[in-house]
Amino acid sequence: MQGRCTDCGYEGNLHYGNPNQRICDNCLTGSVLETRRAVPEHRPTYQEVKMALADAYKELAARIDVLEHENTILRQALKFALLSSAVPATLASRPTTRTGVAREMLQDGMTAKQIASHLGWDAKQVRQIAYRMKTSAEVVQR
Ligand SMILES: [Zn+2]
């Protein structure tokens, strides 16, 4: 189709836009590129999700700050109590990880299923710890 571009005024080969608009190759390329760039950058859901996540993180970060502060205070209090021997030594030597707790429970003769339900684990994980305890004990015996 020949005629005048309704966007830039170029005269020559034109593409049909709509009844009131006919555009040249140059303007068509430009608008296509613009559209392709605009889609990922201005998807409304993307911006909304980003803002929602930022809000959620803000709350969590504040909570983590508070909990870390509280944890520090508790650790210091425990350290002080240990130094002044206000806490019995048996309590101080308690395992601090769930793996440690699982090992202790295994030594007490509890079943993997019982330990798993107590710690919120799979019985498979407990059996793995039991296996590791067994193999490391064998290494020590040799
Ligand atoms: Zn044009």
Question: Features of this protein?
Answer:
single chain, 142 residues, mainly alpha, Arc Repressor Mutant, subunit A, 3 domains, two-stranded antiparallel ribbon, 6 helices, 69% helix, binds zinc ion
Account of the protein in words:
The chain has 142 residues and is mainly α. The protein folds into 3 domains: 2-41, no CATH class; 43-88; 95-141, Orthogonal Bundle (Arc Repressor Mutant, subunit A). It has 6 helices and 4 strands; from the N terminus they run E-E-E-E-H-H-H-H-H-H. The protein has helices at 25-41, 44-83, 89-92, 98-107, 112-119, 123-141, and strands at 2-4, 11-13, 15-18, 21-23. Helix 4 crosses helix 6. It is elongated. The N and C termini lie far apart (91 Å). The model has no long low-confidence stretch (mean pLDDT 83). Residues 5, 7-8, 10, 23-24, 26-27 line the site of zinc ion.
SSE order, one letter for each helix or strand: EEEEHHHHHH
In the CATH scheme, what's the topology name of the largest domain?
Arc Repressor Mutant, subunit A
For the record, give the distance between the C-alpha atoms at the N and C termini, rounded to a whole number.
91 Å
Strand content: 5-15%
CATH class of the largest domain: Mainly Alpha
The largest sheet has its strands arranged as: 1-2
How many separate structural domains?
3
Question: Structural class of the secondary structure composition?
Answer: mainly alpha
Q: Give the averaged pLDDT, no decimals.
A: 83
Radius of gyration: 34 Å
Main pleated-sheet profile: 2 strands, antiparallel
Q: How many extended strands?
A: 4
Overall 3D shape: elongated
Tell me roughly what share of residues is in helical segments: 55-70%
Q: Supply the CATH architecture of the largest domain.
A: Orthogonal Bundle
Instruction: List unreliable stretches of 5+ residues.
Output: none
Number of helices: 6
Bound small molecules, by name, code or SMILES, are: zinc ion
